[in-house]
């Protein structure tokens, strides 16, 4: 097993560490760029490097539908297919089945659903989710889970948690690749007791890493933090913790403060495509007329290639003129912003001043819930 | 005057030379990438470098409408605005007025028309075309011309040519920037005598370079070559010759054989966005199902970053999945293909084997008209 997590330093609950993977070392806490369809939208791998991206996430559901995991395996795996030589994580497809597929029927045996692309009837079992991810060849694969919406009644929430644990066992039993780590996913919605119970059950199965799934599905930030913290607390100290699908810069700071090591979210790239740039003083809507003659960069102290080379006026022009380069450049800046925020957090934790770092960020961003 | 053309070598009518500009030296024959709205669609300047692009062309009509040439001047000029530190050529806006603008009324004084963006009533005079291009700050600016369609009756064609010559004089009189070369444009449609007369009249005005405009407006390739060659023949030997808006790889070879030094065309980037890749054995439609599992690059001997890093299967996938990266990567390859073709021509001319080079290319491409 080439995967290993090295915990280097803690400050309160916040942690700095290293993930050792078959495709290199990852500094944690880390934000992973979403590359759903084997591409981070609009960016080349060289541009991801420029943005300080350490890990790319691929979506199993999308990739198995198109081009197909067997096609990718034939072509040498996802790293080679998309020309990204560094670590990749693939999700299990669970979340997309609930959010994208149609006519979902789920029981302990399998999830049966129709493709959102062509309506084809498909079936995903824990074993198949593992096989697909082994075909894709990511460094980190995820167990198939059930991820019900935030307002799910308690009785069904318990069914979903029981099934998630059962499926984690089946995924673990089916998993063969020794160059790939399989993480389990803690479900349980916003109910603290259920989350903790799920985390404890999965911990007994001894996975190399654990994710907290089923957040960002409609709950408030306070609900998320309330359920996240006790669940993280019962997870093993020496294993990485990944908060799936989260979030804003504020979310990241608050979750790192609660012991989370890994994140992914479409926000930096999606907002970038929609002409929103992240900065330390909030988001900039670059289409706004105030930027038309502004020779300043998005952020004066940002070392990213976009801020070093382009004015707000130029970026504003690209979006008004509907030039593809606008979405590309804002996505690049936003990922660089996220990378830099994570690096700042790692440094603050390493220097045991993360509390002050959080206070300063929250004061600037108007955040609460610390 | 910092602009200078150095003719290094000829082989038949084909020429190898160097343009010395305020932003560096350009090897000719050269293909210039079209960056209409201050961006080559989908590509960063770093990617243009990777594609071997030497010169970017900006469109005066588009840039004066949006963001405005005065905005660009305020921000330090077009080079700085778009972060392209190497040579830029701007057209005069003439061609776009005829192809894009509405309600065109043209007389010797001015062209009056409505913006295709918002219907605003606008006026372009030779003096204004020069002032706009001085604001943009390109290394090479173009005189305002009149570019009638291919089927224009002879009497109006003569009016347009007379006006083009008259406007060239006015542009020359208005032009002030010593770090910018102003080229004249030869019109005259497909009529040899008119073309030659226009070329002779403009030559007397002693411009630092000459363009052949009004091609690719509906005439056949044979008509173009027939009108082009005698016009090129009467242009001064020691000045660069630029064939505007042309063309296919075959067009480029045939025109270089007739003494043309500079080209621009949207074909490599437009076709790239539409999933067509140029190769030495013709265009590849990368959406075709035959590429789904093809691990080969677009061209096995192409040194461009796309061919070195990505399979046809991946590029096929990007287009089927509607990923922005597909248009970006195919545009990059296509520009690299064009750059390489020009470099091969320069080498063949320098080694005085351009005739054989042409024969080999035409045999491969099924071209005629040599």
Structure characterization notes:
The structure is a homodimer of 370-residue chains. The longest helix of chain A is centred in the C-terminal third of the chain and has 26 residues, at 325-350. In chain A, helix 8 runs parallel beside helix 9 (221-234). Helices cover 42% and strands 19% of the residues of chain A. Chain A is of the alpha/beta class and 370 residues long. Chain A is built from 15 helices and 16 strands. The two termini of chain A are 37 Å apart. The mean pLDDT of chain A is 96. The radius of gyration of chain A is 20 Å and the shape is globular. In chain A, the strands form four sheets. An eight-stranded parallel beta sheet of chain A has the order 6-5-4-14-13-12-11-10. In chain A, strands 1-2-3 form a three-stranded antiparallel beta sheet. In chain A, strands 7-8-9 form a three-stranded antiparallel beta sheet. At the A-B interface, helix 1, helix 13 and helix 14 of A face helix 1, helix 13 and helix 14 of B.
Summarize the structure.
Chain A has 370 residues and is α/β, with parallel strands linked by helices. In chain A, 42% of the residues lie in helices and 19% in strands. In chain A, 56% of the residues are buried.
